[in-house]
């Protein structure tokens, strides 16, 4: 089954601390930017949504930003009437 992601919304994943949204309407997507602007955080968010982990990070590293706990929230719109989302609050003890 082929899945096309139509939109992306996330917060609290690695370097993306505030709400971030992106419409993905085209056939191809190019993501570019300076170092530290969140490019890898986008791909990490997709990996976490689909596989419940980010292979190169421990679970403790996923939900923290500069040593502080964060709400992890990812939502993908995959069709006009279907969406996939994952919400977690991670507290480091």
| Strand percent estimate | 25-35%
CATH domain fold name: Rossmann fold
Q: What's the CATH superfamily, by name?
A: P-loop containing nucleotide triphosphate hydrolases
Q: Indicate how many domains the architecture comprises.
A: 1
Class, according to the CATH hierarchy?
Alpha Beta
- Contiguous uncertain segments of 5+ residues: none
Radius of gyration from CA coordinates: 13 Å
The averaged pLDDT comes out at 71
| Count of helical regions | 2
Going by CATH, the architecture would be 3-Layer(aba) Sandwich
Your description of this structure?
With 93 residues, the protein is of the alpha+beta class. The chain has one domain (7-90): P-loop containing nucleotide triphosphate hydrolases (Rossmann fold, 3-Layer(aba) Sandwich), CATH 3.40.50. Helices cover 18% and strands 34% of the residues. It contains two helices and five strands; from the N terminus they run ββααβββ. The protein has helices at residues 39-51, 59-62, and strands at residues 7-11, 20-23, 64-65, 68-79, 82-90. Strands 1, 2, 3, 4 and 5 form a five-stranded antiparallel sheet that branches. A hairpin with a 2-residue loop joins strand 3 and strand 4. The longest helix has 13 residues, at 39-51. It is globular.
């Amino acid at each position: 089954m082929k899945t096309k992601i139509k939109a992306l919304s996330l917060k609290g994943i690695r370097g993306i601390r505030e709400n971030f949204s992106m419409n993905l309407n085209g056939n191809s997507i190019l993501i570019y930017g300076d170092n530290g602007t969140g490019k890898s955080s986008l791909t990490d968010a997709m990996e976490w949504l689909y596989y419940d982990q980010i292979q190169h990070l421990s679970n403790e590293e996923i939900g923290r930003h500069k040593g502080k706990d964060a709400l992890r929230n990812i939502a993908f719109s995959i069709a006009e009437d279907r969406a996939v989302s994952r919400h977690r609050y991670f507290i480091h003890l």
